[in-house]
Amino acid sequence: MNILILNWRDIKNPRAGGAELLTHEMAMRWIAVGHHVTLFSERFDSAASEESVDGVMIVRRGRWWSVHFQAMIYYLQHFRSTDVIIDEVHWFPFFSVLYAPEKTVLLVCEVANKLFFRLFPFAIATVGRLLEKLYISMYRNVPVLAISRSTKEALIREGIRRKRITVIPMGVSLSKHSKRIAKESRFTLIVVGRLHVLKGTVDAIVAYAHIRKRVASAKLWIVGSDGGGYQQKLIHQAKKLGVEEGMTFFGRVSEEKKFELLAKAHILLMPSVHEGWGLVVVEAASQGTPAVGYETAGVQDVILHDKTGVLVEAGQSEKLALEVVKLWNDQKRYRRYQIAGKKRAASMNWDDTARVALSVLQQSCEKQ
């Protein structure tokens, strides 16, 4: 098959995240079994307009505000021979259903819904939400790939029929990060993710302040790139709570450094408002670091409550802190979570992800 993937970023984009990792891992495996894959994405500073990465042909045009329109133009000029199109949603899709409906498969990482109203003024949020409802209705007759049960259920609530949705199993890349690294001597908590309101980093700091009242020597590591000066707000919050001396901001780090920090820490805090799939939870588990997080979309799919970690009611930072301390004080339960988490991480691989997704693409081609 000739497979075309439309995604606003590619794996080499400085702002690439879990969705780009998922996309690239699948594409590499499809190429390995004889398919041809082209990825169309936005340009970024210093990026080549076209290049091959691990056999994936990447074509870059436009920026985030124009890449969707550029994709349509480029398809009509160069990609008509494509057998199937993966249209990835990041807030909005590429609307390939308008110009190649019989070839389109929708890949959904999350449904924004109420997130619009948490991030934007009411008028803008209302428009965004209406556009989301509109695009979902436009894709109601195409096959849909979802990355979690939470995403699937959200799509069903939006009117997509259950039988059209396939949840693809998620993988994790561990082969390069299997070294045994000792835990920190002091109790250490870690948060990993872009510094943003949706990641709940403020809640992590508030929870840390409560934890310090019970475990005075506890440390908090915050790992992730700063989003629009948000770090200053976090520092201000830490100073207000009197806990800034126990915190370290690492910024954006390499994958190797990320896994090293995850291995050294004792517990991952996951207070995200919303996730498509909390990949870092599995990455942490692979290093013997259980997670305590909010019972929110994407997080509740990846933390198995009372098996690999603990879930608490969303927005309850004090409860988050209480469960962290209870887990740390119960070393028997802590070790049980470590063992279960490592076992689960070891069972997850991108081969299964690529295989399930490819079967949907092949079925789509057969129906054309």
What would you note in describing this structure?
- This protein has 368 residues and is of the alpha/beta class.
- The protein folds into two domains: 2-171 and 349-366, 3-Layer(aba) Sandwich (Rossmann fold); 188-347, Rossmann fold.
- 42% of the residues lie in helices and 17% in strands.
- It has 13 helices and 14 strands.
- It has helices at 18-32, 67-78, 115-119, 122-138, 149-157, 201-214, 230-241, 255-264, 279-286, 299-302, 317-329, 331-347, 350-366; strands at residues 2-6, 36-41, 50-53, 56-60, 84-89, 104-108, 144-146, 165-167, 188-192, 219-223, 247-251, 267-270, 291-294, 309-312.
- The strands form two sheets. The chain has an eight-stranded mixed sheet with strand order 3-4-2-1-5-6-7-8, sandwiched between helices.
- Helix 1 (18-32) packs across helix 13 (350-366).
- The longest helix has 17 residues, at 122-138.
- It is globular and about 65 Å long.
Protein traits:
368 residues; alpha/beta; Rossmann fold; 2 domains; eight-stranded mixed β-sheet; six-stranded parallel β-sheet; 13 helices; 14 strands; 42% helix
Q: How many helices?
A: 13
| Shape label | globular
Quote the distance from N terminus to C terminus: 13 Å
Roughly what is the average pLDDT, rounded to an integer?
94
Q: What structural class do you assign from the helix and strand content?
A: alpha/beta
What is the CATH architecture assignment of the largest domain?
Answer: 3-Layer(aba) Sandwich
**Amount of helix:** 40-55%
Q: How are the strands of the biggest sheet laid out side by side? A: 3-4-2-1-5-6-7-8
Largest sheet: 8 strands, mixed
What's the number of domains? 2
User: Which range does the strand content fall in?
Assistant: 15-25%
CATH-defined fold name of the largest domain: Rossmann fold
Query: What's the Cα radius of gyration?
Result: 21 Å
